Structure formats: structure tokens, C-alpha cells
Amino acid sequence: MFGPLQTVIKPAFREMLISGRLESDDRSQVTCIIADGILGFTIDVAEELGIPSIAFRTVSACCIWIYFCLPRLVENNDLPFKDEELDRSVTSVPEMEGFLRCRDLPSFCRANELDDPGLEFVKTETFNSTRSTAQILNTFDDIEAPIISQLRSYWPNLYTIGPLHALLKTVRGVSSSAKVSSNGLWQEDRSCMSWLDLQPPKSVVYVSFGSLTMVSREQWLEFWYGLINCGKRFLWVRRPDSFIHNEDDCQIPAELTEGTKQRGYMVEWAPQEEVLVHPAVGGFLTHSGWNSTLESMVAGVPMICWPHFADQQINSRYVSEVWKIGMDMKDTCDRTTVEKLVRDMMDDRKKELTAATSKVSEQARRSIAEGGSSYCNFKALLEFLRTTTTSSGI
Fold it and tell me: Is the keyword Transferase assigned to this protein (predicted)?
């Protein structure tokens, strides 16, 4: 993972910048690099060219803080851990001592060896990011304040400007319910919006596992049975490449087909931001990706979390134990659990979850409104760019 970045991509990136190919009559030379925070080679190139670099980490602040704490986790013998230790408490991450378990650590921490390439990569690139001129996080102060405070000891020039999808609307001066352009790789099937228009308020469970998660046939059927057995309406996004199957897998049990005709709707991709703010949606069964988590927060929709990799494990723990805006079913996939949690979200715990999600939604919306923390941080970031970038350097 690290080798090709240094030996192939870094030289090509450097050559692209110094060659002048990015310049045109209406576009001057590059005076600043904003790059994904795991692409540390961009910092090297920026330093060589004498221009500032800004690291943008797309995961949650709580995940990054665990990455910074990896040496402490090793020293405390929290890493590596065995499969039978998944529920063992982890107390060596400040601000998380009371609720963190081995199973809640980011997926890279499940490596069997400390020299695992994936674990080494996130550790190296996380500490390497401290060399950037500044850092950007897609989060907001109210929701991750204690963790953001810890991160500032490594990143003193940190700008928290999330939720970005909501801030974008503020900057553009459009309403929170306005249609937005899609940045997805799949064609949206907007027929689901017409279907939602026909459903009662807060009656639909929205199901989507993002753009990368793969689901086995067995898992797929367990979720399907759970959704049918709970008796709730559901809108399920199932990418064509989201599950592994062969010709023998094509037979679908009749009760699932019939149950879906009665209460369900399936599409290959959906306009998620619009779906989550639709009056008919009452809950979100999600993979706990950070973008999906933030979108659900802004919409005020409770979550059932089924995380897979990277920051999703710790995101789901924060959803259930810290923010208390949903439930965590990580490392579990059976129809009984799915049925129970959906009923809990839509019925038994509805009042409790509605109160918590409404509070978080208000905090998120306040942060991106004019004068809010993320709004002000964004303005400060723009001013930083104006004062630190120059036309000299390349």
C-alpha cells in the first residue's frame, strides 16, 4: 500500500505540478495542496515546492484520535487482540475509557500482527499528517468537542467545518430540503421518492450499506427476512455489486418476494440526502460510514448500525453509547436481531430516540448556520488560504 504511493504516484503527482499542465489562461499555478490526509506524499511535494499543504481526513475525529493513540494501545497490550477478546474493555484511549471495547476499535486494529501493512499505514500516515500546514475535518464542535480538543495537541491549526453537505447549502443559500447534485458513482433511481410520497409519516426504514460494503447471500437473506418479519415498510438500496452470488443463488423465497411487494421498495441507488429528510422515513439501517452518519444526524433520523471497516466500528459505538441516537449491531447478522432492532427503533424506543436525534440535528444545523462554529471555521479557513498562499512556489 505504502510502496506504490511513494514510488509511482508521488513522482507522477510532482511532475504534474511542476510541468505547468494544470495552468491555463484563466487558471494560475498551484499555490496550495489540499489532499486526503492519508496521502502523506503530497506534504513532501508541497514542502519541496514551497507551498502550504492541508490534510483533509474524511473519517470521524474519534477514529483519528484512536489512530493517534495506537502507540499507547500497543504499550498497554490492547493490541493485538484475539477474536475471543472482542468484548474486553479498552481503557488506554483518553475520553473513551468508559465505553470502548476491542470490537469498537477501527477495523485495522483487528490485525493479528503489529506489523500488519494496513495498521502500519494508518499509523504512519496519521502521524505524518502533523507536518501539514493545516488540517480539515468533516465534523462539528458540539458532537466531538472532547476529541477535537485532544486532536489539537497534534493539529493546532485544525478547521472543523462539517457537516459539509449541510454547510454547502448554507454557503449556496439554498434550503435544507433542496435537491442537491449527486457525487455518487451510481445512477440514482428517483422512483423511490414517488414511492415515499405515498407512505405514512415516519413509517419507512431506509436501508443502505454505502458504496463499498459487500454483503454475502446469507447476510442478504437474514436482513431481508428481518425486514419482512418486523412488519415495517422499508426502502432498500442494493447496489448491483453489493452482494456475491452465482446462478444457484438466484432463487428467492416466495415469502420475501410477496412481503416486499406489500411493504417494500428496492432500488440500485437512491438520492440519500433527500431520502433521509423525507417525512416518511423514520429510521436508517446503515453501515455507519461517516458521511451517512452525518447525513442522518442532520436529518434527525435514528440509526441501526452494521459497520464493516475503517472508522465505522467506532462510529457505531458513539451512535449507541455516546450520542444515543441509535443502536449498534456490529459483528451480528441474523433475522431475529434485525427484526427486534427495527421494532425498537420504530416503536419501543421511538420517543427516546426521537428526542436524542432532534437534539443532535439542532446542534448540527446550528453549527453550519451563519455564525455557527463550522460556518465561522469555514470563513477562517478561507482567510487562512488567502493569507498563506502565494503565486510564487512552482
Answer: yes
